[in-house]
């Protein structure tokens, strides 16, 4: 493997009828996570000041032995509707984040 490289991921946004972003889907390639989800830390949080819904979200994923993966999202996340699912077969971690 390549030391110091970021984990690979795909990012796709969901859009509402008004064209506003309503959420995002992140699919992380976990091939390099030898222990699967063991020791993996996932955090989805909002950064910045709360000026209405002006905050931005960040997905942080720490896989043991890998560089911290940080993905900025251009909306404020609703922490209660964040979901993550790991597929052992595909070695993928799917994270879905809804906007508030």
From TrEMBL:
Source superkingdom: Eukaryota
Record protein name field: Uncharacterized protein
Organism: Octactis speculum
